[in-house]
Structures are given as C-alpha cells and as structure tokens.
Amino acid sequence: MKRVSFAEFGGPDVLQLLDAPEPHAGPGQVRVAVRAAGVNPVDWRIREGQFQKVHPIELPAGVGLDAAGVVDEVGEGVEGVEVGDRVFGEGSSTYAEFAVLSAWAPMPESLTFEEAAGYPSVVETALRIIGQVGVRPGQTLLASGASGGVGSAVLQIARDRGITVIGTAGAANQDYLRGLGALATTYGEGWVERVRRLGSVDAALDLAGSGVIRELVELTGDPRKVVSIADLGAPELGVRFSGVAGSMPEALAEAAGLISRGKLHIPVERSYTLADAAAAHIDSRAGHTRGRRVMVI
C-alpha cells in the first residue's frame, strides 16, 4: 500500500509517499480502507519534531491521526462494528491507503467521507478546551484565530450551549464567523480594543499561536481563564497549554449528535492527494483556513 512517512524531522520536503506494509487491527482496533484523512496542525508539528520532548516518536514514522473509511478488518474483542461499515475516527498513520483506528463511530449519513475526515480531532479538541477554560452558559468566550477547524467547532458548540462567542480572524473570514453565530472582528493592530467594544470577555482560547497570550490574559483578567492549543510558551505566562486528548469516543458521539441536529457543520476548504501531502502541510502551517483541509485517497 501507499503511505506518507518521514525518516527525519524537518520541513515539508521530508515527507515521502512510499510503499509500506499494510497495518493490521490489534485487540480493540479496526482497520479501514481510508477514503479521506484529516489534515491537522498537529501533523506538521510532529513532523517538525516539536513534541519530541513530551511525546517522542520513533523514525521513520507515518503521518496523520484522523480518517474516514470503510472497515475491512476487526480486531479481537471489538463489538458493534462489522466489515463494510462506514466509520470516522482517530488512529495513526492515516495518510495512507489503509490505517488502524483506535477510536471510531458510525459516519453520520449526511456526510461524505471527505467531510467526515475533518471532524474527529477538531471536535475532541473543541470540547476539551471549552471544558478546561470553564466558560458557562450566559458568559462570553473569545476565540483567537477562530476560522479554522477547531475554531469552527468551538463557535458552534459554544453557541449551542448558550455561550456568546467573539471570534477573531482575517478580514476575508469575517462573514464566515458571523455565519457561525459569532461576534467577529479582525486581528492585527488595535484588535484588543475592537474586542472590548464587542463586550467583556469571561474566558479566552488561543487557537492560532500568534503571540497573543498576554493580550488574552489582559482581556480576561486572569491567566486561569485562558487556554492555548498552539503556543508552547503559554505556561510561562501562567496559561494552560492543552495538548493531551480526552475521550475520543465521547467526542465522536457528541459530534454525530450535533451534526444530526444541524448544529455543527465544518466545511472542507481544500482537498489534497497523498502525493500533495507537503503542499497540505505548507498550507496548514500558513493558517488563514476557513474550515478544514483533508487528504482524499
């Protein structure tokens, strides 16, 4: 089978599309014929070696965590899923023709494989950080860098819970944020005052790692009311860096429920082939995403 992998840490040029042995489902796992794989910022952060001190990996390594596909192998002890089922979930080395998933759920019938691949990690992350920042119904949450996959999920999940959301993004994405129910403003010079004009902020999330931690603490008045998923230096300012995933099965179940109720929709901004993995990482690292990017196999 074909798989994207890298043998050394570095830029996108270290990614290679190679022939690799097919993986097999172990106990508690399923294998899928991958139809699409999510492209997440964590993918290129791992490729660059940013997490080696906290979560070391051995090289050569595959790329990708999220996938949607058709089950073709069921591991020992697995119940409730059969060969031929359409599922989406999280595993390892998902930029490949076959991948093993450790968490999965039936795909919502309304989604294509391409759409479904964009949900697992972003919804888990959104649910986790909304919980960690402690924002409650009736309060206001600021999402800095809100137009990407996690931001899109945060805005919709928070609004469904009765939380007012202020989102910052580039000028081209203001209408997109408003369409998701957010009070929108641009980042850049003067953004703190623009946020203040929209209302007081009870909690804030740093989703882009654009060096705004001090300002988010200033707006909330308390570093404990700020969580970052993108700035590894956040703890130096007393802000929690959230990088350890919670329950993916619970997140997938909640995502499916939100999607079925019409409360969650994350558009696919662009699709790539396995041969274009380097371009996908370049685009992901550049940011300015509206929704999700995915690999189509």
TrEMBL record:
Species of origin: Actinomadura rubrisoli
Subcellular location: Cytoplasm
Name of the protein: NADP-dependent oxidoreductase
UniProt xrefs under CDD domains: MDR_like_2
One of the record's GO molecular function terms: oxidoreductase activity
Keywords carried by this UniProt record: Cytoplasm, NADP, RNA-binding
Gene3D superfamilies per UniProt: Medium-chain alcohol dehydrogenases, catalytic domain, NAD(P)-binding Rossmann-like Domain
All residue ranges annotated as the Enoyl reductase (ER) domain in the record: 10-295
Lineage: superkingdom: Bacteria
A Pfam cross-reference name: ADH_zinc_N_2
SUBUNIT field: Homotetramer.
Entry GO terms, CC: cytoplasm
